Amino acid sequence: MTEEEQLANWRSQLTPEERHSLETVNVKGSRTRDLLDREAAESIAVSHLFERSNVARELHVAAMLLRRGLGRVSVAEALSFSRQDGRFVRSFPESRFLTTREAMQEETDMLKLVEAGRSKFEEIGKGKTLEAHR
Questions:
Q1: Which positions ≥6 away from 47 have C-beta within 8 Å?
Q2: Consecutive sets of 10 residues in the chain, 134 residues long: mean pLDDT of each?
Q3: Which of 26, 45, 47, 29 is nearest to 37 (CA)?
Q4: What would the DSSP string read from start to end of 42-71?
């Protein structure tokens, strides 16, 4: 079947109510259901982005919010969120890379742990060159 034939076949299978519900005016005018509100979408976007990485690009943050807030968040709102939300920290004001206070704290704690263990244990190999045996 050609594309036009397939489309005609699909249309012939629609009931009059289904056909009416798919008209542009009805699709654009209807309320979406079961979508996340903006606050929930923001929370999920942040947790998803920073669960495996401590840094994300500003545009990735905005894109993730758009995906999670489909139909409830505009592009302008997503960009504003990535640029102004208090959950994010930048290493310098013009940076396009973001992190969270929690991620910074985790890294600080890890560095403290490493520093606390420095010179407390015998070094591996005691300065000798190690060779892998096959």
A1: none
A2: 86 84 67 73 90 91 89 88 92 90 92 92 78 79
A3: 45
A4: HHHHHHHHTSS-S-EEHHHHHHHHHHHTTT
